[in-house]
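Supplementary Methods S3. Input chains for the assembly prediction are listed below.
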Amino acid sequence: MADFYNLKVADIYKETEDTSVVTFDIPSELQEVFKFRQGQHLTLKADINGEDIRRSYSLCTSPFENQWKVAVKQIHEGKFSTYINQKVKVGDHLDVMSPSGTFGVNCNPDNAKNYLFFAAGSGITPVLSMIKTHLAVEPNSTCKLFYVNKTAKSIIFKEELEQLRNKYFGRLEIYYFLTKERRDIELFNGRFDDDKMKVLTKTFIDIPDTSEVFLCGPEQMVNFVSNYLVDAGLPKELIHFELFVTGLSEEDIKRAERLAKQNVEGTEVTIVDGGKEFQFTMTKEYDNILDAALGAGADLPFACKGGVCSTCKCQVVEGAVEMKINYALEDKEIAQNYVLSCQAVPTTKKVVVDFDV
Ligand code: FES
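Predicted structure tokens for the full assembly:
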């Protein structure tokens, strides 16, 4: 069920000029529902000028802090980010869905892992949650963060990161890269490119000793860095990412065009959600399972409808579907028949999908 809870804004402050950090008050009876793993996100919903708008924002706190905070960066002409940054104040209420998302790996106090993080701008939010959690829970693990921002002033959570570096001295290394301000050391100027990655993998990164890599930022950065690390010998399954989509690739456009021609009319779809089954027949009007199910009256979780946030994730248990776009699921999830329902086009005449997973 796409349950939203009306939560009170306990605090809101400007972390940088264009980024507000919102803390939600979670009443004791909802603390169990709002339990989360580091790297997960909250989906927020608001009626803005008569329009139902939803956005997902990663929690920047760690589960053991018992706080629920998200950072919302103002996007140019972004309806939701403008609303949060300019209108919302302490004491207001927002509709919030319980935490979801699969970014992040389980912690274990016995782990002695070396984690690498690459983040750009507000991509720091899930990364901060992970760094805090792994350092606190796994005393023998280390973290290295490579963090790109435009200017020193626009570095989100700089103060908190510095405090963590002091607290976990020797176990957390942080390297800042600036794209619109020059620094004395050339390596730290500009985005990750071939030259930079060559130096990083020779001096700061020990590939055979790396346990997991997490990337969060624009698609171009995420793809470039992960391809570079794989070419340098890092197994692909150790790389996890969450990205901001800036535009569709040629390949995505072609696949979406091909799937738009798929004849889905008459497909019998069964949705399993909350232990109950909901059945409907697809019409020409919709090409994906989520929209068709919503159109038929189902109440299912979703946020971006763009294949990015994974809020609409489900598992195909019968029949087959193909996804138009997938920016959220990893190969191992796809191998287990997980799909993004907002992108799932049925390719068989009967499909059963399970949202209780
Ligand atoms: S709603 Fe975000 S991936 Fe489907």
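The mean pLDDT is 94. The pocket of FE2/S2 (inorganic) cluster is lined by residues 302-305, 307-312, 328, 340, 342 (CB under 6 Å).
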